[in-house]
Design goal:
Blueprint: H1 3-28, H2 43-51, E1 58-60, H3 66-71, H4 76-83, H5 117-131, E2 137-142, H6 149-160, E3 165-171, E4 174-175, E5 178-179, H7 180-183, H8 191-194, E6 200-204, H9 208-226, E7 229-234, H10 252-259, H11 263-273, H12 279-302
Parallel strand pairs: 1-2, 2-3, 3-7, 6-7
Antiparallel strand pairs: 4-5
Helix pairs in contact: 1-2, 1-11, 1-12, 2-9, 4-12, 5-6
The chain binds thiamine diphosphate and magnesium ion.
């Protein structure tokens, strides 16, 4: 990885972290409505994964989507405006936290119903296969989603039709307040791919380099026509499921232990120890990220609300 790319990835992770921290504050001030699910702790997953995609590859995810939106190229200020329900947001302020999307950036959302985007991913991949496009659809979902019917329907058909789809399970070890041991019959989510004869593996999601290595290899094999692949990425969310989660289901020590494994810290140490970037250069990126997110908040706060007529726009789309 060259220095420019490395600094760019580090920068994206830090921007995501600050967007999430600032949005938590704005939520507490009552400026963000609805639910808010933060991606803090999981930044290396989508940053690593999406950095390996070809420009036309499609990305779709669940409701923990702010970071994914940023990695797909939606500017932080446009994400922030969407969070605040403003007309300048990527979904014109009508989607909010769980419904970020930008089809031109090949980002298909942001979906609130657990697992519901998985059949959509299969459909996107089927469309590309049918039209002979060399694209891969990257579908991200949680450990909890693997216990849902949608998951099994979509994963099964992806094998039957040999679809160019990369299933990425972000195993952060909890679905709301339920730990995987209490909800899943198998310990490793990738084992569920075995039942559908889909090749699979499990990687450390706190280390962006590991995520990139795995994603680069499997995207190439899917693009060659080898069919779907199931990548389980082991990670952890440092904050509650959504804002206002009293977190009675896990111990503070467990959270602290994982926080010592901060994906940004791990990448920072990697870049310094491999002499790819110096501490000063990384600090410079940190400062730049703080400034960009500050500007993003100012932009969002000063943007207009959607006009009342907007309520009737974008209900149907000509395809
Ligand atoms: C079909 C459906 N059932 C229940 C819910 C309520 N719900 C929202 S998030 C969630 C947990 C999902 O956990 P996981 O897939 O592991 O994702 P994570 O929040 O950990 O990123 C549940 C049960 C929902 N949104 N949709
Ligand atoms: Mg989970």
């Amino acid at each position: 990885m060259d220095k420019r790319e490395a600094l760019g990835l580090y920068y994206q992770m830090v921007v995501i972290r600050h967007v999430e921290e600032r949005s938590a504050e704005l939520y507490q001030q009552g400026k963000i409505g609805g639910f808010l699910h933060l991606y803090i702790g999981q930044e290396a997953v989508s940053t690593g994964l999406i950095s390996c995609r070809d420009p036309n590859d499609r990305v779709i995810t669940a409701y923990r989507d702010h970071g994914v939106a940023i990695n797909c190229g939606i500017p932080a200020k446009v994400v922030m405006a969407e969070l605040l329900g403003k007309a300048t947001g990527c979904s014109k302020g009508k989607g909010g936290s769980m419904h970020m999307a930008d089809v031109e950036k090949r980002f298909y959302g942001g979906h609130a119903i657990v697992g519901s985007h998985m059949p959509l991913a299969a459909g996107l991949a089927l469309g590309d296969l049918y039209q002979g496009n060399p694209n891969v659809t990257i579908c991200m979902f949680g450990d909890g989603a693997t216990n849902i019917g949608y998951f099994h329907e979509a994963v099964n058909l992806s094998k039957v039709w040999n679809l160019p789809v990369l299933w990425v399970c972000e195993n952060n070890q909890y679905g709301m307040g339920t730990s995987i041991e209490r909800a899943s019959a198998v310990e490793e989510m990738r084992q569920k791919a075995e039942g559908y004869l889909i090749p699979n593996s499990r990687v450390d999601g706190m280390n962006i380099m590991e995520v990139r290595k795995a994603a680069g290899e499997v995207l190439a094999s899917i693009r060659e026509g080898k069919g779907p692949y199931f990548l389980e990425v082991l990670t952890y969310r440092f904050r509650g499921h959504s804002m206002g989660d009293p977190e009675r289901y896990r111990k503070a020590e467990e959270v602290h232990q994982w926080q010592e494994n901060d994906p940004i810290g791990i990448f920072r140490r990697y870049l310094i120890s491999h002499e790819i970037a110096s501490e000063e250069e990384l600090n410079e990126q940190d400062n730049k990220a703080v400034a960009e997110v500050k500007e993003a908040v100012d932009f969002a706060e000063s943007s207009p609300e959607p006009a009342p007529e907007e309520l009737y726009q974008d209900v149907y789309v000509d395809a």
